[in-house]
Amino acid sequence: MTEAPLAYGVFSVAGGAHRIGVRSGDDLVDVTGVHDLLATGSLTPLLAAGFEAWEETRSLVEAFTQAGPDPGRITPAHSATMHLPFAVGDYVDFYSSLHHATNVGRLFRPDSEPLTPNWRHMPIGYHGRAGTVVVDGTPIRRPVGQRGPGDFGPSRKLDFELEVGFVTGQGPRLGSPIPVAEAERYIFGLMVVNDWSARDLQSWEYQPLGPFLGKSFATSISPWVVPLKALDDRRIEAVGQNPPPLPYLLPPGRGLDLDLEVTINGKAVTGSNTNHLYWTMSQQLAHATSNGASIRAGDLFASGTISGPTPDSLGCLLEITANGQNGEYLQDGDTVVVASSVLGSCSGTVVASRPT
Ligand code: CA
After folding, report:
1. Is 100 a residue of the active site?
2. Distance, CA 163 to ligand 1 centroid (Å)?
3. What pLDDT digit, counting tens, does each position of 142-155 carry?
4. Of the listed 100, 121, 276, 287, which one is catalytic?
5. pTM
6. CA 195 / ligand 1 centre spacing (Å)
Protein backbone atom coordinates (compact mmCIF):
# COMPACT_ATOMS: atom_id res chain seq x y z
CA MET A 1 0.00 0.00 0.00
CA THR A 2 1.48 3.31 -1.05
CA GLU A 3 1.08 6.48 0.98
CA ALA A 4 -2.51 7.71 1.14
CA PRO A 5 -3.22 10.32 -1.55
CA LEU A 6 -4.19 13.90 -0.83
CA ALA A 7 -7.84 14.19 0.24
CA TYR A 8 -9.84 17.34 0.94
CA GLY A 9 -12.70 17.56 3.43
CA VAL A 10 -14.73 20.10 5.37
CA PHE A 11 -14.75 19.81 9.15
CA SER A 12 -15.59 21.61 12.37
CA VAL A 13 -14.48 21.12 15.95
CA ALA A 14 -16.86 21.51 18.90
CA GLY A 15 -19.52 23.29 16.87
CA GLY A 16 -17.07 25.86 15.49
CA ALA A 17 -16.86 27.25 11.97
CA HIS A 18 -16.50 24.94 8.98
CA ARG A 19 -12.84 24.67 7.93
CA ILE A 20 -11.12 22.94 5.03
CA GLY A 21 -8.81 20.10 5.96
CA VAL A 22 -6.69 17.41 4.36
CA ARG A 23 -6.12 13.90 5.72
CA SER A 24 -2.83 13.06 7.39
CA GLY A 25 -2.85 9.61 8.97
CA ASP A 26 -5.14 9.75 12.01
CA ASP A 27 -5.10 13.54 11.97
CA LEU A 28 -6.35 16.23 9.68
CA VAL A 29 -4.47 19.36 8.77
CA ASP A 30 -6.38 22.63 8.57
CA VAL A 31 -5.50 24.16 5.18
CA THR A 32 -8.03 26.99 5.32
CA GLY A 33 -6.43 30.06 3.76
CA VAL A 34 -3.41 28.21 2.34
CA HIS A 35 -4.78 29.30 -1.05
CA ASP A 36 -7.40 32.00 -1.73
CA LEU A 37 -9.72 29.29 -3.03
CA LEU A 38 -9.62 27.56 0.38
CA ALA A 39 -10.90 30.61 2.21
CA THR A 40 -14.34 29.34 3.12
CA GLY A 41 -15.63 26.14 4.69
CA SER A 42 -16.60 24.56 1.37
CA LEU A 43 -14.79 23.13 -1.63
CA THR A 44 -17.26 24.77 -4.02
CA PRO A 45 -15.08 27.85 -4.86
CA LEU A 46 -12.16 25.54 -5.62
CA LEU A 47 -14.37 23.32 -7.81
CA ALA A 48 -15.62 26.37 -9.71
CA ALA A 49 -12.09 27.66 -10.40
CA GLY A 50 -11.14 24.91 -12.86
CA PHE A 51 -8.32 22.57 -13.68
CA GLU A 52 -5.33 24.96 -13.60
CA ALA A 53 -6.39 26.29 -10.20
CA TRP A 54 -6.89 22.74 -8.90
CA GLU A 55 -3.30 21.89 -9.78
CA GLU A 56 -1.92 25.10 -8.31
CA THR A 57 -3.84 24.54 -5.08
CA ARG A 58 -2.78 20.92 -4.85
CA SER A 59 0.91 21.88 -5.14
CA LEU A 60 0.54 24.53 -2.44
CA VAL A 61 -1.34 22.22 -0.08
CA GLU A 62 1.11 19.35 -0.55
CA ALA A 63 4.05 21.68 0.13
CA PHE A 64 2.25 23.08 3.18
CA THR A 65 1.59 19.67 4.73
CA GLN A 66 5.07 18.35 3.91
CA ALA A 67 6.68 21.38 5.54
CA GLY A 68 5.27 20.36 8.93
CA PRO A 69 2.40 22.69 9.72
CA ASP A 70 2.01 24.58 12.98
CA PRO A 71 0.57 22.24 15.69
CA GLY A 72 -2.42 24.58 15.92
CA ARG A 73 -3.33 23.43 12.39
CA ILE A 74 -3.46 19.74 13.35
CA THR A 75 -6.60 18.10 14.73
CA PRO A 76 -7.11 14.43 15.63
CA ALA A 77 -9.63 13.12 13.12
CA HIS A 78 -11.79 11.60 15.87
CA SER A 79 -12.41 15.01 17.44
CA ALA A 80 -13.59 16.60 14.19
CA THR A 81 -17.10 16.55 12.72
CA MET A 82 -17.07 16.12 8.96
CA HIS A 83 -19.56 17.94 6.73
CA LEU A 84 -20.75 17.69 3.16
CA PRO A 85 -17.60 18.94 1.40
CA PHE A 86 -19.31 20.88 -1.41
CA ALA A 87 -22.75 22.03 -2.48
CA VAL A 88 -24.02 19.16 -4.63
CA GLY A 89 -25.27 20.52 -7.96
CA ASP A 90 -26.94 17.95 -10.17
CA TYR A 91 -26.66 14.26 -9.37
CA VAL A 92 -26.45 11.52 -11.97
CA ASP A 93 -26.13 7.83 -11.23
CA PHE A 94 -24.80 5.57 -13.95
CA TYR A 95 -25.23 1.82 -14.36
CA SER A 96 -21.76 1.00 -15.63
CA SER A 97 -20.97 -2.43 -14.18
CA LEU A 98 -21.61 -5.20 -16.71
CA HIS A 99 -22.01 -7.83 -13.99
CA HIS A 100 -24.48 -5.71 -11.99
CA ALA A 101 -26.56 -4.77 -15.03
CA THR A 102 -26.69 -8.40 -16.13
CA ASN A 103 -27.63 -9.72 -12.68
CA VAL A 104 -30.35 -7.09 -12.16
CA GLY A 105 -31.73 -7.66 -15.67
CA ARG A 106 -32.13 -11.36 -14.85
CA LEU A 107 -33.99 -10.54 -11.62
CA PHE A 108 -36.27 -7.74 -12.85
CA ARG A 109 -36.97 -9.07 -16.35
CA PRO A 110 -36.58 -12.86 -16.15
CA ASP A 111 -38.29 -13.37 -19.51
CA SER A 112 -35.98 -11.06 -21.51
CA GLU A 113 -32.32 -10.86 -22.38
CA PRO A 114 -30.64 -9.74 -19.12
CA LEU A 115 -28.74 -6.88 -20.73
CA THR A 116 -30.90 -4.32 -22.55
CA PRO A 117 -29.93 -3.79 -26.24
CA ASN A 118 -28.56 -0.28 -25.55
CA TRP A 119 -26.28 -1.17 -22.62
CA ARG A 120 -23.05 -1.87 -24.53
CA HIS A 121 -23.55 1.20 -26.75
CA MET A 122 -23.65 3.97 -24.11
CA PRO A 123 -23.24 4.55 -20.38
CA ILE A 124 -26.83 4.21 -19.12
CA GLY A 125 -27.77 6.47 -16.21
CA TYR A 126 -30.56 8.44 -14.54
CA HIS A 127 -30.82 11.82 -12.86
CA GLY A 128 -31.06 11.47 -9.09
CA ARG A 129 -31.90 13.90 -6.33
CA ALA A 130 -28.97 16.19 -5.43
CA GLY A 131 -30.69 17.63 -2.36
CA THR A 132 -30.74 14.29 -0.55
CA VAL A 133 -27.03 13.55 -0.90
CA VAL A 134 -25.73 13.29 2.66
CA VAL A 135 -22.32 12.89 4.24
CA ASP A 136 -20.87 9.87 6.00
CA GLY A 137 -22.52 9.25 9.38
CA THR A 138 -25.94 10.72 8.53
CA PRO A 139 -28.73 8.39 9.77
CA ILE A 140 -30.89 6.95 6.98
CA ARG A 141 -34.61 6.85 7.70
CA ARG A 142 -36.32 3.84 6.19
CA PRO A 143 -38.43 5.15 3.29
CA VAL A 144 -42.16 4.69 3.02
CA GLY A 145 -43.89 4.24 -0.29
CA GLN A 146 -45.90 2.08 -2.68
CA ARG A 147 -44.65 -1.48 -2.42
CA GLY A 148 -47.12 -2.72 -5.01
CA PRO A 149 -50.72 -2.12 -6.14
CA GLY A 150 -52.73 -0.76 -3.18
CA ASP A 151 -49.87 -1.39 -0.75
CA PHE A 152 -48.32 1.64 0.97
CA GLY A 153 -45.92 1.35 3.88
CA PRO A 154 -42.30 1.16 5.02
CA SER A 155 -39.96 -0.46 2.54
CA ARG A 156 -39.30 -4.12 3.37
CA LYS A 157 -36.44 -4.37 0.91
CA LEU A 158 -34.01 -1.61 1.87
CA ASP A 159 -30.63 -2.09 0.23
CA PHE A 160 -27.22 -0.48 -0.12
CA GLU A 161 -25.34 -0.01 -3.39
CA LEU A 162 -21.54 -0.05 -3.43
CA GLU A 163 -20.39 2.75 -5.73
CA VAL A 164 -17.85 5.50 -6.25
CA GLY A 165 -18.57 8.95 -7.62
CA PHE A 166 -16.76 11.92 -9.08
CA VAL A 167 -17.41 15.62 -8.65
CA THR A 168 -16.93 18.07 -11.51
CA GLY A 169 -15.91 21.66 -11.99
CA GLN A 170 -17.74 24.18 -14.14
CA GLY A 171 -18.23 22.91 -17.70
CA PRO A 172 -18.47 24.74 -21.02
CA ARG A 173 -21.59 26.73 -21.87
CA LEU A 174 -24.94 25.09 -22.59
CA GLY A 175 -24.86 23.45 -26.01
CA SER A 176 -21.13 22.59 -25.88
CA PRO A 177 -20.43 18.90 -25.23
CA ILE A 178 -17.26 17.92 -23.36
CA PRO A 179 -15.07 15.84 -25.71
CA VAL A 180 -14.09 12.49 -24.21
CA ALA A 181 -10.38 13.34 -24.54
CA GLU A 182 -10.87 16.48 -22.41
CA ALA A 183 -13.22 15.00 -19.84
CA GLU A 184 -10.63 14.53 -17.10
CA ARG A 185 -9.96 18.28 -17.06
CA TYR A 186 -13.48 18.65 -15.64
CA ILE A 187 -13.25 15.85 -13.07
CA PHE A 188 -11.97 17.23 -9.77
CA GLY A 189 -11.96 14.15 -7.58
CA LEU A 190 -13.59 11.03 -6.26
CA MET A 191 -15.39 9.73 -3.20
CA VAL A 192 -17.20 6.60 -2.06
CA VAL A 193 -20.96 6.52 -2.66
CA ASN A 194 -23.76 4.42 -1.17
CA ASP A 195 -26.88 4.74 -3.32
CA TRP A 196 -29.49 3.52 -0.81
CA SER A 197 -32.30 1.71 -2.65
CA ALA A 198 -35.77 0.50 -1.68
CA ARG A 199 -36.20 -2.51 -3.97
CA ASP A 200 -39.94 -2.99 -3.41
CA LEU A 201 -40.67 0.67 -4.26
CA GLN A 202 -38.23 0.54 -7.17
CA SER A 203 -39.55 -2.61 -8.83
CA TRP A 204 -43.16 -1.30 -8.78
CA GLU A 205 -42.41 2.23 -9.99
CA TYR A 206 -39.48 1.96 -12.39
CA GLN A 207 -41.35 1.35 -15.64
CA PRO A 208 -41.50 3.30 -17.88
CA LEU A 209 -39.29 6.19 -16.66
CA GLY A 210 -36.71 4.56 -14.39
CA PRO A 211 -35.81 4.95 -10.71
CA PHE A 212 -37.72 7.61 -8.74
CA LEU A 213 -38.76 7.40 -5.06
CA GLY A 214 -37.05 4.05 -4.56
CA LYS A 215 -33.73 5.90 -4.78
CA SER A 216 -34.34 9.58 -4.04
CA PHE A 217 -34.70 9.40 -0.23
CA ALA A 218 -30.93 9.38 0.47
CA THR A 219 -27.50 8.92 -1.09
CA SER A 220 -24.44 8.86 1.19
CA ILE A 221 -20.95 9.99 0.25
CA SER A 222 -17.63 9.69 2.07
CA PRO A 223 -16.38 12.98 3.55
CA TRP A 224 -13.04 13.08 1.71
CA VAL A 225 -12.66 14.10 -1.91
CA VAL A 226 -9.51 12.65 -3.44
CA PRO A 227 -8.31 14.65 -6.46
CA LEU A 228 -8.18 12.52 -9.60
CA LYS A 229 -4.67 13.88 -10.20
CA ALA A 230 -3.59 12.40 -6.86
CA LEU A 231 -4.63 8.93 -8.06
CA ASP A 232 -2.11 8.59 -10.91
CA ASP A 233 -0.65 5.39 -9.45
CA ARG A 234 -4.16 3.85 -9.40
CA ARG A 235 -4.92 4.35 -13.10
CA ILE A 236 -5.34 1.27 -15.31
CA GLU A 237 -6.15 0.50 -18.91
CA ALA A 238 -9.86 0.66 -19.68
CA VAL A 239 -11.49 -2.74 -20.17
CA GLY A 240 -12.03 -4.00 -23.71
CA GLN A 241 -15.40 -2.86 -25.07
CA ASN A 242 -17.35 -4.94 -27.55
CA PRO A 243 -18.82 -3.68 -29.82
CA PRO A 244 -16.44 -0.71 -30.10
CA PRO A 245 -18.18 2.45 -28.85
CA LEU A 246 -19.12 5.25 -31.22
CA PRO A 247 -16.32 7.75 -32.04
CA TYR A 248 -17.54 10.36 -29.52
CA LEU A 249 -16.77 7.84 -26.75
CA LEU A 250 -13.23 7.14 -27.98
CA PRO A 251 -10.49 6.99 -26.88
CA PRO A 252 -12.04 5.52 -23.73
CA GLY A 253 -9.68 7.14 -21.24
CA ARG A 254 -8.37 5.16 -18.30
CA GLY A 255 -9.96 3.14 -15.53
CA LEU A 256 -9.13 2.99 -11.85
CA ASP A 257 -7.95 0.29 -9.45
CA LEU A 258 -9.67 1.07 -6.15
CA ASP A 259 -10.69 -1.67 -3.75
CA LEU A 260 -14.08 -1.41 -2.05
CA GLU A 261 -15.60 -3.30 0.84
CA VAL A 262 -19.00 -3.32 2.54
CA THR A 263 -19.60 -4.22 6.17
CA ILE A 264 -22.93 -4.45 7.98
CA ASN A 265 -22.63 -4.05 11.75
CA GLY A 266 -18.91 -4.66 11.40
CA LYS A 267 -19.26 -7.93 9.47
CA ALA A 268 -17.77 -8.09 5.98
CA VAL A 269 -20.52 -8.63 3.44
CA THR A 270 -18.89 -8.12 0.05
CA GLY A 271 -15.88 -6.62 -1.70
CA SER A 272 -15.39 -5.21 -5.16
CA ASN A 273 -13.13 -2.94 -7.21
CA THR A 274 -13.58 -0.07 -9.65
CA ASN A 275 -11.64 -2.15 -12.18
CA HIS A 276 -14.93 -4.02 -12.83
CA LEU A 277 -16.50 -0.92 -14.43
CA TYR A 278 -17.17 -1.26 -18.16
CA TRP A 279 -17.48 2.47 -18.93
CA THR A 280 -14.80 4.97 -17.84
CA MET A 281 -15.45 8.28 -16.12
CA SER A 282 -14.36 10.08 -19.30
CA GLN A 283 -16.94 8.19 -21.33
CA GLN A 284 -19.63 8.85 -18.71
CA LEU A 285 -18.99 12.59 -18.72
CA ALA A 286 -18.67 12.82 -22.51
CA HIS A 287 -21.92 10.92 -22.91
CA ALA A 288 -23.77 12.96 -20.28
CA THR A 289 -22.90 16.18 -22.14
CA SER A 290 -23.07 14.78 -25.70
CA ASN A 291 -26.54 16.29 -26.18
CA GLY A 292 -25.29 19.73 -25.17
CA ALA A 293 -26.35 19.50 -21.52
CA SER A 294 -24.01 21.58 -19.38
CA ILE A 295 -22.44 20.76 -16.04
CA ARG A 296 -21.80 22.96 -13.03
CA ALA A 297 -19.22 22.99 -10.27
CA GLY A 298 -20.35 20.44 -7.69
CA ASP A 299 -22.19 18.09 -10.02
CA LEU A 300 -21.92 14.54 -8.76
CA PHE A 301 -21.68 11.53 -11.08
CA ALA A 302 -21.82 8.10 -9.46
CA SER A 303 -20.65 4.89 -11.11
CA GLY A 304 -23.62 2.67 -10.47
CA THR A 305 -23.35 -0.45 -8.33
CA ILE A 306 -20.00 -2.12 -8.91
CA SER A 307 -20.31 -5.89 -9.01
CA GLY A 308 -17.56 -8.27 -9.98
CA PRO A 309 -17.87 -11.70 -11.61
CA THR A 310 -17.75 -13.78 -8.41
CA PRO A 311 -20.37 -14.41 -5.66
CA ASP A 312 -18.22 -12.56 -3.10
CA SER A 313 -18.01 -9.41 -5.25
CA LEU A 314 -21.70 -8.52 -5.67
CA GLY A 315 -22.37 -4.85 -4.98
CA CYS A 316 -25.83 -4.90 -3.34
CA LEU A 317 -28.17 -7.13 -1.33
CA LEU A 318 -30.54 -7.50 -4.30
CA GLU A 319 -27.85 -9.57 -6.00
CA ILE A 320 -26.49 -11.17 -2.82
CA THR A 321 -29.90 -12.43 -1.66
CA ALA A 322 -30.70 -13.73 -5.15
CA ASN A 323 -27.42 -15.59 -5.01
CA GLY A 324 -28.58 -17.42 -1.88
CA GLN A 325 -26.28 -15.65 0.55
CA ASN A 326 -27.31 -13.85 3.76
CA GLY A 327 -30.95 -13.80 2.70
CA GLU A 328 -32.06 -10.54 4.31
CA TYR A 329 -32.46 -6.89 3.44
CA LEU A 330 -31.45 -4.16 5.89
CA GLN A 331 -33.05 -4.03 9.33
CA ASP A 332 -33.61 -0.94 11.46
CA GLY A 333 -30.45 -0.32 13.45
CA ASP A 334 -28.13 -1.84 10.84
CA THR A 335 -25.01 0.19 10.14
CA VAL A 336 -23.68 -0.11 6.59
CA VAL A 337 -20.12 1.01 5.84
CA VAL A 338 -18.85 1.21 2.27
CA ALA A 339 -15.09 1.67 2.39
CA SER A 340 -12.14 2.08 0.09
CA SER A 341 -8.64 1.92 1.56
CA VAL A 342 -7.70 4.78 -0.78
CA LEU A 343 -10.78 7.05 -0.84
CA GLY A 344 -12.12 6.63 2.69
CA SER A 345 -15.40 5.31 4.00
CA CYS A 346 -19.06 6.14 4.09
CA SER A 347 -21.27 4.95 6.95
CA GLY A 348 -25.02 5.11 7.54
CA THR A 349 -27.32 3.59 10.14
CA VAL A 350 -30.90 2.69 9.26
CA VAL A 351 -33.53 4.23 11.54
CA ALA A 352 -37.19 3.21 11.66
CA SER A 353 -39.63 4.85 9.27
CA ARG A 354 -42.10 7.44 10.51
CA PRO A 355 -45.54 6.01 11.37
CA THR A 356 -47.86 5.94 8.36
CA1 CA B 1 -27.12 3.10 -8.08
Report:
1. yes
2. 7
3. 999 999 999 999 99
4. 100
5. 0.97
6. 5
